[in-house]
Amino acid sequence: MTGRRSKAADGWLLSAPALLLLLIAASGPLLIVAVYSFLEKGDYSGVRWILSGDAWFGVLFKRDIFDGTVSLADANLSIFWRSARLSLATTFITFVLGLPTAWFIATRPAKVRAFWLFLITIPFWTNLLIRTFAIMEVIRNQGLLNTALINLGLISEPIQILYTDAAVLIGMAYVYLPLMVLPLFAAIDRFDFRLIEAGYDLYASRWQILRRIILPIIRPGIVAGCILVFVPSLGAYVTPRVLGGGKNMMIGNFIELQFGQGQNWPLGSALSMVLLIVVLLALLVYTRVSSKDDPHV
């Protein structure tokens, strides 16, 4: 018994540096943000150490400075709605593009499969900002897309894509597509293709095989890919800032604005905590789905 306790104590002692680093590097900043969200804003920036719930109130509501009436913060809700809409659209587009891509890779011969996966990972070799500027060169008025359409005679004037929600959507779909393809590939790679043959033997149509055999079996990969795309899309900063021109803000840009020009650190902290709660809920959904598919989880 004493020896077992000694081994447990040695284990805690060996893991103490890692646990301390995790506590300081991860939990520490998060705790600071959480505390700031319950304080009053400073006169110019920072916070005043007076307990207040104004920042959390300001996430969804606003108070008239003259008569004190309370109403919904339309500007904040508009940013929330745009962020959710663009994030969901990005997730859907990457799924539609990623599923056939992952299927194609998973059905290649084993010796060339690694090459196709290698191509998928190439975008990760470059910085996100550089990839975003590359998309800008494609969709700007004098970019490759408009130039090609004009030369083909399909349009007479350039289509204004840059600095719109469509530009942000294109950019995020391009940036986060590999995050959808990789978990889908992992799920399809374990798929037993004899089930498809059995479905055809039972006179199932292609749509029935997709809906009743393939999609239910690869569902963990679909959920993982959707979360891996939706979470960073919701908090995206660089792509909406560059391709949206700063006019069509998302939550990430709104948070940065509060810590910068807005000089309202408590509100920025409260918005950050809201974003964190949404991420935690998404991970909770993934955990529940995974536990249903795997009884050992």
List the main descriptive attributes of the protein structure presented here:
globular, cell membrane, two-stranded antiparallel ribbon, membrane, 71% helix, MetI-like fold, mainly alpha, 297 residues, two-stranded antiparallel sheet, transmembrane, 13 helices
Write the layout of secondary structure elements.
Elements: H1 2-36, E1 39-41, E2 47-51, H2 54-60, E3 61-63, E4 70-72, H3 74-106, H4 110-121, H5 128-139, H6 144-151, H7 165-189, H8 194-201, H9 206-217, H10 219-234, H11 238-243, H12 251-259, H13 265-293
Antiparallel strand pairs: 1-2, 3-4
Describe the structure.
This protein has a domain at 74-263: MetI-like fold, CATH 1.10.3720.10. The strands form two sheets. A two-stranded antiparallel ribbon has the order 1-2. Strands 3-4 form a two-stranded antiparallel sheet. The chain has helices at 2-36, 54-60, 74-106, 110-121, 128-139, 144-151, 165-189, 194-201, 206-217, 219-234, 238-243, 251-259, 265-293, and strands at residues 39-41, 47-51, 61-63, 70-72. With 297 residues, the protein is mainly alpha-helical. Helices cover 71% and strands 5% of the residues. A hairpin with a 5-residue loop joins strand 1 and strand 2 (47-51). It starts with a helix and ends with a helix. The longest helix is centred in the N-terminal third of the chain and has 35 residues, at 2-36.
